[in-house]
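Weekly structure sync, notes
Attendees: PL (lead), two postdocs, one rotation student
Agenda item 3: pending single-chain targets
PL asked that the sequence for the first pending target be pasted directly into the notes so everyone works from the same version. It is reproduced below exactly as submitted, 410 residues in total.
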Amino acid sequence: MALYAKSLNPEVVIEINPHGITGQNRAWESGIDHSRILKWTEVFWTEEDNPAGLLPDGRLISKIRSFKLARTYQNILLTHLSDDPVAIAECLAFNQTIGYVGEDPIFPGLLKHIAFYRKHRDLFTDTEDVASVAVLRSQPSISYHNARAQLSAILVEQALIQTRIPFELIFDEHLANLSKYNAVILPDSECLSDEQLLLIRRFVEQGGGLVATGLTGLYDEWRRLRVEPGLRGLVDAQPTAEAYVEHVEGMGTAAGIPVRKEHGRGRVIYFPGVQFEGPLPQPEAYFGISNRYWKLPKNWEEITEGVRWAARDSLPVRVSGPPYLIANLVSQPAKRRILLHLVNYDAKNTPSVKSIEVACRLPQGATAKEVAVYSLDSDAPRSLNASGSAGTCVFTVPEIRVYALVAVSW
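Predicted structure, written out during the meeting:
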């Protein structure tokens, strides 16, 4: 349909409404595989009920996964917006545009953000996400075993989001080219083909970092149990699938000490499980992992430290702050600048976040020329003092309320 439409008019935009990453088993329930259909679209809708914010029980709710899905396939995401400044800021930070503003009348707060976006639109166009870490969302693993594979993916992503480690979502096809990443995370990616396992081994042998959890690689792409674990040699401490069934009930994930290993020129760290904090909610229909589960895993510190180790601590940015301060890093190579978006997801209870220390990497040999912070609270950008040697830039953002954008040019 897309090819036919574009044959009539190459400028036509293909838009669909499959929803985003909600924690539901979209393949099982609706026959939807985002990685197959979003290649043919430019825009898609999500009507998920995941309003941006920090809940009293500590869960940080967002649509960040859906936005990252859109960015992986060069799509724009449309979602219903309220007059909540955090939700609008989330769109600016992760969608690089506000998106849908079709309420009538347009909310006053939304008008303010539209004016900001129009005034500084050059900061949002032609941007590329910057990340050296990737999280695999294995389609067969999630389709056949949503209760575990989706839960592990959600929890790992939550840890990266709330510790401000930049990451991209990748899908099965992207294993063919992992060269842009320093580390790849396989969160209970239990269903991997022989070819995928070969690509993962090659990535590690050539210097890449691998973070694997739980049941990763114990089954083939049709969820047939392998005679030997697929990661054997890379991972030596992985129990058999039968051992998991015997010792882990329901959707819980196994506890245990992570095991590190050097392999070829790369690094591998294996976690027996991504541990859910507290008692698991009662299973939903089709074992959906809705935002009732969206909280930092119990072993989040071990996981994020393991990711840094696997990536040889080669991350594009470090940002200090509380776990409700969320960051997104993009670049505009042609304009020789990177852009750091900061969002305070607890703005309703914490009016501002102060003294945010940032250390970011620049292209090799580059020196920061200017660092400026843009916000809705000021008509003009504010220059910041910066330090650092060639290839690095260190600065402090004095304060943000809900949203700020820092532009670093070299």
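Discussion points:
- The first strand starts at residue 15 and ends at 16.
- The CA atoms of residues 197 and 284 lie 32 Å apart.
Action: rotation student to compare against the earlier draft before next sync.
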